[in-house]
Amino acid sequence: MGLIGIIGGSGLYQMEGVEITGERRVGTPFGSPSDAVITGILDGKEVAFLPRHGIGHKIPPHKINYRANIFALKELGVDTIISVSAVGSMKENIHPGELVMVDQFMDRTKDRPQTFYEEGIAVHVGFADPVCETLRKALVESARDAKVAVHDGGTYICIEGPAFSSRAESRIYQSWGVDVIGMTNYQEAKLAREAEICFATIALSTDYDCWHHEEGPVDVAMVLETMKNNVVNAKKTISGVIKSYDFSKSCACREALKGAIITDPNAIHDNVKMKLGPIIGKYLKG
What we know:
This protein is of the alpha/beta class.
């Protein structure tokens, strides 16, 4: 079993029961991750925490080096990622303070690298079901066991940010039937799939964006106030799933590259093989 990666705010690795064992600064072919990766033990299992915005929340969503973050976790031996992210609710029945275990994504970002496979290699992974369903279901059950209000499934629309939506944008997104809106998780999900890492999102509803006719437009103070309780509930959910879930079980996510590399291995330059070795190496042997 590999390490369990947890991406979110710095407060997550201050969970009760976490024994911090180290701090790893990892260089990658795609640059530096958002911050050092904190390693530790939680309920007998090795975990790796990465604050996506850096300690102190210094990096805005459109400037996060998503490729470096996922690649660094892969290099450290992470084969499962639980991503925790604040979102706006696009549905009346998803109230601020509740969790949503999303199962689909839409991308409305504008200029973010979101693949490891560019020059010298063509790779087409399946992304029809972008979340590891067995892990996602386990998170739903863990939240329910902890008496946390949770929604089983939903579509996350990812916008560029860092500004919140205009009212016109928010109403259009709502008309599309999406459930939550955020600024970070689409790239994480896609890159995790390309790296053969099981991935699931805990979306923390903090507001109603600005579509709701009875609520004021979202602002940072509103998000931060709701996030306090949300983080507590996310910690309960994560702790529960780490205790109960079998992270060693086989999963299709961890074979996502099987049959997805189109380029003839003999045509892949050694520099590309070296650069992407931690991800594609097992498919190029012999």
